[in-house]
Amino acid sequence: MKIKYELIKKDGNVRLGKLHTNHGTFDTPMFMPVGTLANVKTLVPEELKEMNSGIVLCNTYHLWLRPGEDIVKKAGGLHKFMNYDGPILTDSGGFQVFSLAKNKKKDITEEGVHFKSHIDGTNLLLTPEKSIEIQNKLDSDIAMSFDECPPASASYDYLKKSLERTLRWAKRGKDAFNNENQSLFGIVQGGPIEDLRKYSAEETVKMDFDGYSIGGVANDGESKEDMYKAIDYSIPYLPEDKPRYLMGVGEPIDILEGVSRGIDMFDCVLPTRIARHGNVFTREGRVNLRNAKFKEDFTPIENNCDCYTCKHYTKAYIRHLLVSGEQLAGRLLSIHNIRFLIKETEEIREAIKNDSFEDYKQDFINKYEKKTK
Question: Exactly one of 91, 139, 254, 264 is catalytic; which is it?
Fold first, then answer.
């Protein structure tokens, strides 16, 4: 079946909902852990379920290069290949083409993007049709349209030409789409420019996708103000009966700001990336456990956290692992960070149910920004 979004409650722009897929139903707003290579780094599917993860994201670009979409298809699709029976979303590969291409040199044409593999420098071409073909074979629950990801510093004229190309690519991808059990999302672009976002959203909605994403908000150099503008300028033109996904965003406060503007789904590599460097989310801001002051701190990262790490390990032990170069440190901190963001969205949903979202948001922000450790 195609996905089905169920709007449970709405208060201004804030939404509470459910998303029904072939591999289960999850509540929204929801944070998606990122499993770039068909694996959320260092974790196994059972642990994701223990964290109450509703859906995970896998990366089309990386799986295209290794092991190849045909191998995943022979395995029975992504769910069987990675032994994960919950909902999966695959991105289009577009962001990686623009951010990871060898030396970041690429040639954008109407056909698609010519670039060199970041692995071995092989010349490659990714087109809207190819991106969809790969995702059809991966057989995720949700596939993404192929779009151009212009830099935050791009001019008005470039952004306009870029989004018009993205619209043409979206139509080509939708025409090539060939998986009746998979759903396809369109992507709204246009930078922080109001009329471009409006135009992109209206034209994308005309194509009648199964859901809609707001892209171009997690590029290098983009300010928070520009991110929020991009959301504000897009949301009014997206249908209420379909899910809305803010791509590449996972800072705790940005999730709150996204929800307050009408976003249902978020994803980001941030929780696992910062974990590998010894950083964790806490209610009072981000903490670096490499700090010497934690050498004899025999308390959990957070006393009220229900994650596996906080139930079983202390800051002193995790710091010891970090300074000793033990991989277990990144694994334990990844568990905490992912659970932190998922729990945040659980609390957001409860606050929406209780008509107290704005109070929850302000209280969270006040505590999170209280001090920097």
Answer: 91
